[in-house]
Design brief:
It comes from Citrus sinensis (Sweet orange). This is Disease resistance protein. By secondary structure, this protein is of the alpha/beta class. It is built from ten helices and 19 strands. A 13-stranded parallel beta sheet has the order 4-5-6-8-10-12-13-14-15-16-17-18-19, with helices on both faces. Helix 3 packs across helix 5.
């Protein structure tokens, strides 16, 4: 019976005897005890994510900013310190990490299984209702029995991380999280995932992260529970199908960042479904990545007057941008990376007077830059690598007095290099050809 038990424990990734693992982890914990307090807390947060999965850097940075009162620069510095101490690993184009205009969602973090076990071990020292982090260590078909046995008292966790398969309404039970600021829903489903009803009462929730690790999208149900989360600042949705965004009776004035990654958008952003400027009046960052059914951006996006960062990347069906895009007077960063069916940039894009960075790389159907691009007087950087149809430049580029860097192909580099005489601070870079199949693994 002992060895039958050992077999079952090993099949679940658990040690044969807990005392052996605890002795190892207690020795390893010495390395963590002497970290600065905030660095230690950030290390412990890494136990919130599934074993052997890449953690999107954007998710990690947002979480640390929200719960540890850090700014993004401090959070990134902590990430580098943990990496230097070999407590995590930065993967995928780490050379670009930390660049002023780099996009965090292209970069991921991994952690050795034993280090993750250490984070879980240190996080689970207290009584379950008093833990700062309430975490499911591994995926299961249902919520832990230990949680259910303790629902008569509130859970005081600041971070809640759940890892399951398909979840229907009847699979959830009542739980109270009066102090929860971050909710991470990890799951694997190809059908429907019903959001937990208790979200509606998580009044302090600041970041909601929903990640599906299945091979295809799952329909996201009960999205309406998010409609009145007035403190919510960050929303990350990955590999889910969205029928409609929650209709809020009051504006979500604190919402600053929304990311759709590998999502089916359907018609959820249409003006007839949701009034984006009214619902999200203070949104500053909006990301669409690998959303293959996104053919055009809804015109109502142009009414997001606080938006500073718009990223539409790897959206292979995107054919056009809104004609009134010039109304987004606060926009500073515009990424249109790898949108191969995008044929033109609207003329009013030249009215984005605050724009500092424009990325149109791998938009292989673009044949020209807008004639009035010289009106972008604050533009500092253009990335147009692999735009093979653009052979010449409009005359107005001479007016780009703030331009510091252009990344382009050899065929058009000569035209930019001619500008170096009139724009002495301009640096033209022709990237080396890089052929890789690493994306297949992704």
């Amino acid at each position: 019976m002992y060895w039958t038990s050992a077999k079952k424990r090993l099949s679940k990734g658990e040690p044969i005897c807990e005392s052996h693992e605890n002795n190892l982890l207690d020795r390893m914990a010495i390395s963590i005890q002497y970290l600065p307090k905030k660095v230690k807390e950030c290390f412990l947060d890494l136990g919130s994510f599934p074993e052997d999965k890449k953690i999107p850097l954007e998710v990690l940075i947002n979480m640390w900013v929200e719960i540890h009162d850090l700014d993004e620069e401090e959070a990134f510095a902590i990430l580098v310190e943990l990496s230097d101490r070999n407590l995590l690993k930065i993967v995928k184009d780490a050379r670009r990490a930390g660049d002023m205009y780099s996009s965090y969602y292209e970069i991921s973090v991994t952690q050795h299984d034993v280090l993750r076990d250490l984070a879980l071990h240190l996080s689970n020292q207290e009584n379950i209702n008093d833990r700062k982090r309430l975490l499911m260590p591994r995926r299961d078909t249902e919520l832990p029995k230990e949680w259910e046995r303790n629902v008569d008292q509130p859970f005081n966790a600041q971070i809640v991380s759940i890892h399951t398969g398909d979840m229907r309404e009847m699979d959830w039970f009542r739980m109270e999280f009066p102090k929860a600021e971050v909710l991470i829903l990890n799951f694997s489903s190809t059908e429907e995932y019903f959001l937990p009803p208790f979200i509606e009462n998580m009044e302090k929730l600041r970041a909601l992260i929903v990640i599906n690790y299945s091979t295809s999208n799952a329909a996201l149900g009960n999205f309406s529970v998010c409609s009145n989360l007035t403190n919510l600042r960050s929303l990350w949705l990955e590999k889910v199908s969205i029928s409609q965004l929650p209709k809020s009776s009051i504006p979500l004035k604190k919402m600053q960042k929304i990311s759709f990654v590998l999502c089916k958008i359907n018609n959820s952003l249409d003006q007839s479904v949701v009034d984006l400027p009214k619902t999200l009046p203070c949104l500053t960052e909006l990301t669409f990545d690998h959303c293959d059914d996104l053919m055009k951006l809804p015109p109502s996006i142009c009414g997001l007057q606080s938006l500073k960062n718009l990223s539409v990347t790897n959206c292979h069906s995107l054919q056009e941008l809104p004609a009134d895009i010039g109304k987004m007077k606060s926009l500073q960063i515009l990424r249109l990376y790898a949108c191969p069916h995008l044929r033109t940039l609207p003329a009013r894009i030249c009215e984005l007077v605050c724009l500092k960075y424009l990325n149109i790389s791998q938009c292989v159907s673009l044949s020209c830059l807008p004639q009035g691009i010289g009106n972008l007087i604050r533009l500092e950087k253009i990335d147009m690598r692999e735009c093979s149809q653009i052979w010449s430049l409009p005359k107005s580029v001479n007016s780009l007095k703030s331009l510091r860097q252009v990344i382009c192909e050899e065929d058009v580099s000569w035209a930019w290099k001619d500008l170096e005489k009139t724009l002495p601070n301009l640096h033209v870079q022709v990237p080396a050809k890089c052929f890789s199949l690493d994306w297949l693994h992704e």
